[in-house]
Design goal:
single chain; Rossmann fold; 6-stranded parallel sheet; 14 strands; 39% helix
C-alpha cells in the first residue's frame, strides 16, 4: 500500500509528532507499506513570534496538488491541523477522495495559554477540520471519551510504540550530580507546564533535557536546575537511563511518547493523573500518578527499573504500524488518483 502522510510538523523540529511519524514509517516499511511525507520542505514559510525558531509553511494550491499526484497514493492521512493539513484536506474534498486524520496535539489548550482565545472556539475549528475524515485516529481510550464528549465522531484507535533498540538501559550517562536525579525531556515551552516540576522541593537534582522559548527565563528563575539542552540518539538514551525518575508535568499532551521512551530506558515515570499518563501508566507498577506531583516523584523513585523495561518491550512500533495500516485499509476510496510522472526519490513529495 502506498500511503501519503501530510504533516506540518517535520524535521528539524524535535517533538513527539515528528518522532512518531518517523518511527511509523520505518515499522510500516517492514510490513510492506510505502509511506511518503508531504511536509513543509520546499514551501515558503512564516516565522511564529511566540515560538522562536519555528516556521509555518505557506503552501499553495497548485503545488499541493502536484505533490499529491506525484506521490500517487492509495491512501492519504493528515497528521496535523496546520496549513499543510488544511490544504491537503481541501484537495481531498475537491476531488472526492477519502482521507484519515489523527488527533495528536491539544491545539485549543496550547493556543488559549498563549493568546487567551477560548478553548471552546479552538475545538469548534478542530471539529470542522476532522469531521470530513473517514476516521480520526486517537491514541488512548481517555482521549476517545473526551473527544466524543466534545462532539467528535468516527474515532478510531492508533496506539503509540517505542524503539526499544534505541531506548535501552544499557549505557547510562555518568552524571556527577546529587541523587536522586529527577529528569524531564521535551520542548521547553509554557504549554508543557514545566514550572509545576521545577518549583517542587525535591531531594537530589532536577534536570531538563530540551530547548525552547522558555529555557532562558526558566534557567534564570531556577538556577539550581540543570538545563542540559537538546540531546538526540544515544546521547539522549544514555541520559534518560541515568535518571532515577522521569517527570512528565504536562496537562495537555494527548499521549506523551517520551513516557514510553523513559520506561524503555528503565526509568519510572511521575506525572499528573491526566490523559496520556492515565493511559500509559494507569495502575502498572512503573510510575506514580498524583495531583500532588511531588508525592508522585518520591513514590516513583522506589519502583523497579526492570518492570519499566519489560513494560516497554511489549509496546512495539510494529504493532502501532499494523493498527495504523488497518485503519487505512478499511477506507474504500471513491476513485483512484490518476498517476502522474513520478520524480525519482522521496523529494518528489517533500520538495
Amino acid at each position: 500500500m502506498r500511503i501519503l502522510i501530510a504533516t506540518d510538523a517535520w524535521h528539524p523540529q524535535v517533538n513527539g509528532v515528528v518522532r512518531t511519524l518517523t518511527s511509523l514509517a520505518g515499522a510500516a516499511s517492514a510490513l510492506g507499506a510505502e509511506i511518503e511525507f508531504l511536509t513543509p520542505d520546499g514551501f515558503a514559510s512564516l516565522g511564529v513570534p511566540t515560538y522562536p525558531g519555528l516556521r509555518v509553511a505557506l503552501p499553495n494550491r497548485r503545488e499541493i496538488a502536484r505533490r499529491i499526484e506525484t506521490a500517487s497514493p492509495e491512501a492519504i492521512h493528515i497528521a496535523t491541523e496546520g496549513p499543510i493539513g488544511w490544504s491537503v484536506r481541501a484537495y481531498c474534498r475537491r476531488n472526492k477522495l477519502p482521507f484519515t486524520t489523527s488527533y495528536t496535539t491539544r491545539f485549543p489548550e496550547y493556543v488559549s495559554v498563549r493568546t487567551g482565545i477560548p478553548v471552546s472556539l479552538g475545538y469548534a475549528v478542530l471539529r470542522r477540520f476532522h469531521a470530513a475524515a473517514s476516521t480520526i485516529m486517537i491514541a488512548t481510550d481517555s482521549l476517545r471519551q473526551e473527544l466524543a464528549a466534545r462532539g467528535f465522531r468516527k474515532l478510531g484507535f492508533w496506539t503509540r510504540g517505542v524503539d526499544t533498540g534505541l531506548f535501552n538501559p544499557d549505557s547510562p550517562a555518568s552524571l556527577d550530580l546529587p541523587r536522586p536525579i529527577f529528569m524531564t525531556m521535551g520542548r521547553v515551552a509554557v504549554e508543557k507546564n514545566l514550572e509545576a516540576f521545577l518549583s517542587l522541593d525535591l531531594p537530589g537534582t532536577k534536570v531538563v533535557i530540551g530547548d525552547g522559548p522558555q529555557k532562558a527565563s526558566l534557567a534564570h528563575k531556577y538556577p539550581e536546575v540543570k538545563f542540559l539542552g537538546e540531546k538526540k540518539g544515544q546521547d539522549l538514551t544514555s541520559h534518560l537511563a541515568a535518571a532515577d525518575v522521569f517527570v512528565f508535568p504536562s496537562l495537555t499532551d494527548t499521549f506523551g511518547v517520551v513516557q514510553l521512551e523513559a520506561l524503555a530506558c528503565g526509568t519510572p515515570v511521575a506525572a499528573f493523573p491526566v490523559t496520556g499518563p492515565l493511559d500509559v501508566i494507569a495502575d502498572h507498577p512503573i510510575g506514580a500518578l498524583d495531583t500532588d506531583l511531588r508525592s508522585a516523584c518520591l513514590r516513583a523513585a522506589g519502583m523497579s527499573r526492570e518492570a519499566c523495561r519489560n513494560f516497554a518491550l511489549e509496546r512495539s512500533w510494529e504493532n502501532s504500524a499494523r493498527q495504523f495500516i488497518g485503519n487505512l485499509t478499511a477506507v474504500q476510496p471513491s476513485r483512484s488518483l490518476q498517476p502522474a510522472l513520478r520524480v525519482a526519490g522521496r523529494s518528489a513529495v517533500q520538495g
